[in-house]
Design a protein that fits this description.
The complex is a heterodimer of chains A (102) and B (466). Chain A is an all-alpha fold and 102 residues long. Helix content of chain A is 66%, strand content 0%. Chain A has helices at 5-25, 32-43, 47-54, 67-92. In chain A, helix 2 runs antiparallel to helix 4 (67-92) and helix 3 packs antiparallel against helix 4. Chain B has a 6-stranded parallel beta sheet with strand order 5-4-3-6-7-8. Chain B has a two-stranded antiparallel sheet with strand order 1-2. Chain B has helices spanning 4-23, 28-53, 58-80, 86-110, 125-153, 166-187, 190-208, 216-238, 241-265, 269-274, 281-287, 299-307, 318-323, 326-338, 357-364, 375-378, 400-403, 454-465; strands at residues 118-119, 122-123, 311-316, 342-347, 372-374, 387-391, 422-427, 447-451. Chain B is elongated, with a radius of gyration of 25 Å. Chain B is α/β, with parallel strands linked by helices and 466 residues long. The chains are: A mainly alpha (102), B alpha/beta (466). Chains A and B meet through helix 1, helix 2, helix 3 and helix 4 of A and helix 1, helix 2, helix 3, helix 4 and helix 8 of B.
């Protein structure tokens, strides 16, 4: 009997939870705020679904009742992707070590 | 157009890059590289999606336009936002992830052909379950984050909003969501789908209103986690590995942060979620209002004390963020260092309104991160330090957490400020902190209260140090 592909995705999902668990515990507490903003940015990879949804309309009706939600989701996710990565970048640039001699 | 197998491999690569992005955050040195991996992963995911669809018709232009509009708004916000407003920003961003998940789910429900999920009214059962779970969690994330945002922004009162029968009502709604998903999957009725979304929006709203302002670190972490699970749900629907991996990462990240925050307050997760904390205790705090003697001083006294110290530990709290005192504080510390005084910073896990909030503010004020320590790292040093300078913190220093089992904060790990030779408290008034309880430290022999705005006081101390 063949294994349902769902099981493979479920395996990936469960194993990723464990990876997430160990990776996040190793994040230094002083970087917890950047951690939140960067997880925000990467969870917006949901834009992949939004693009598929947006391009689902045919050339006669680019905006139909289904694709319009896709387009709106593209904008929302894009705010998050750009905003999330850039604000993380901005924060991380501020973390400096003590200057050796002064 | 590239094959489905090839694109699946690319999605896997971008999933791995996202793991590396989080891995980079284990130290500030590797963190910038980590962020770059994250961006690279995102670029790969988006590019591969375009190539897989391979349809560069007029619709493609609109995708780019919407992408660009969102991107510009995001970039603008990222550059303009002050660091003190990070909690609001993150809450706002969570709401967008939630709403995007809802929109993608709606789109997939209305036009399942585009996602190879069947046809309207006849969607594959597994996909429908995944889609409705993703949509429900997305909706909860959205409305919950909106409330958190309004509370943090001060548009909505930070005090908990409770009413009779709140918990039974919430439980009822949560059960009805499960029933709705079941019915939706058996009937495929679009009306049920809309009702499910409406009810999920409602419960997100109801779940967050009873939680008070100072519990926001837990709420934000929890919503972070939800946004991850919502993304994972949609990832299953779209059969997209990158989305599943990311959803799991973000989901567990938020869950761990919530756990750390709860532990920092010695409260169970359910205790925080059920809310209402602080509202009932307020009256208890005011009862023992016997006049106890308090020593209060001015900037001159504080400067004198610190000048004669050999080591000073700074304890910043939310009050510092409110007063925007972080830059003034760093200037004061610079002056102290010129006088050969050893200065370090002690950060309590729940200081501020989100995990790591104080660290970011200090980093913004150019405080080197190797002078900033977590509770476990520095707590033993208080007994050797001459002066503890508490600025805008209160409950996290309250020794009652160790001594009085009746206290609402009993058992909470605290910074052992009382072990210092002398303690300076910068505070507006004697009013109790968020937990609504008096701080014994105010009345100790070796405590000097500095009643003033945190920023003005630190500036004045700096002047007096010269």
């Amino acid at each position: 009997m063949e294994i349902d592909p769902f099981i493979f995705r479920l395996s990936i999902f469960i194993l990723s939870i464990f990876i997430g668990y160990y990776v996040v515990w190793s994040v230094t507490p002083s970087l917890h705020t950047p951690l939140m903003s960067v997880t925000n940015a990467i969870s917006s990879v949901i834009i992949v679904g939004a693009i598929i949804a947006g391009l689902a309309g045919n050339s006669n009706s680019i905006f139909n009742n289904s694709s319009i939600f896709g387009f709106l989701a593209i904008s929302l996710a894009a705010i998050n992707i750009f905003g999330g990565f850039l604000v993380t970048q901005r924060m991380l640039a501020m973390y400096k070590k003590k200057k050796k001699d002064k | 157009m590239i094959s489905a197998n090839l694109s699946a491999i690319f999605y896997l690569i971008s999933g791995v890059l996202f793991i590396l992005a989080l891995r980079g955050l284990s130290s500030p040195e590797t963190s910038r590289q980590g962020n770059f991996f994250g961006i690279l992963g995102m670029v790969i995911a988006i590019t591969v999606t375009f190539l897989t669809i391979g349809n560069f018709s007029s619709g493609f232009i609109y995708v780019l336009i919407f992408l660009l509009v969102g991107g510009l708004i995001g970039a603008f916000i990222a550059y303009k936002i002050p660091m003190t407003a990070m909690p609001e920003l993150v809450a706002g961003f969570h709401s967008l992830v939630g709403l995007a998940a809802v929109f993608v789910a709606i789109s997939a429900f209305l036009n399942p052909d585009a996602f190879n999920l069947g046809s309207p009214g006849n969607i594959k059962l597994g996909s429908l379950i995944e889609m409705s779970i993703g949509a429900a969690i997305g909706a909860i994330t959205f409305s919950g984050s909106i409330i958190a945002f309004l509370k943090l922004q001060g548009i909505m009162s930070g005090s908990p909003i409770t009413f009779k029968g709140q918990h039974p009502l919430n439980a009822l709604i949560l059960i009805s969501i499960i029933i709705l998903i079941y019915l939706l999957c058996t009937t495929q009725s679009s009306n049920l789908f809309w009702i499910l979304l409406a009810v999920s929006f409602l419960i997100g709203f109801l779940l967050i209103i009873p939680i008070g302002g100072a519990d926001m670190p837990v709420v934000i972490s929890m919503l972070n986690s939800y946004s991850g699970w919502a993304a994972a749900g949609i990832g299953f629907t779209l059969e997209n590995t990158a989305l599943i991996i990311t959803g799991a990462l973000v989901g567990s990240s938020g869950a761990i942060l919530s756990y750390i925050m709860c532990k920092g307050m010695n409260r169970s997760f359910f205790n925080v979620i059920l809310g209402g904390f602080g509202a009932t205790n307020q009256s208890g705090g005011n009862q023992n209002k016997e006049q106890k003697p308090v020593k209060s001083g001015n900037a001159d006294d504080a400067a004198f004390l610190m000048k004669n110290a050999s080591s000073v530990i700074i304890v910043p709290g939310y009050g510092m963020a409110v007063a925007q005192a972080q830059h003034a504080l760093r200037e004061m510390v610079d002056t102290l260092k010129k006088n050969d005084i050893k200065v370090s910073y002690a950060i309590h896990p729940v200081a501020g309104r989100m995990p790591g909030h104080m660290n970011v503010l200090l980093a913004e004020a150019n405080v080197p991160y190797d002078e900033v320590f977590e509770l476990e790292e520095i707590n033993n040093d208080f007994s050797n330090a001459d002066v503890a300078f508490v600025i805008g913190a209160n409950d996290v220093t309250n020794p009652v957490a160790k001594t009085d089992p009746q206290s609402p904060i009993y058992g909470m790990p605290i910074l052992d400020v009382e072990k210092c030779k002398s303690v300076l408290f910068v505070k507006r008034s004697l009013s109790p902190g968020y937990a609504g309880i008096d701080n014994d430290l105010f009345y100790k022999e070796n405590t000097l209260m500095l009643f003033a705005d945190a920023k003005k006081m630190t500036e004045e101390i700096t002047k007096n140090l010269d």
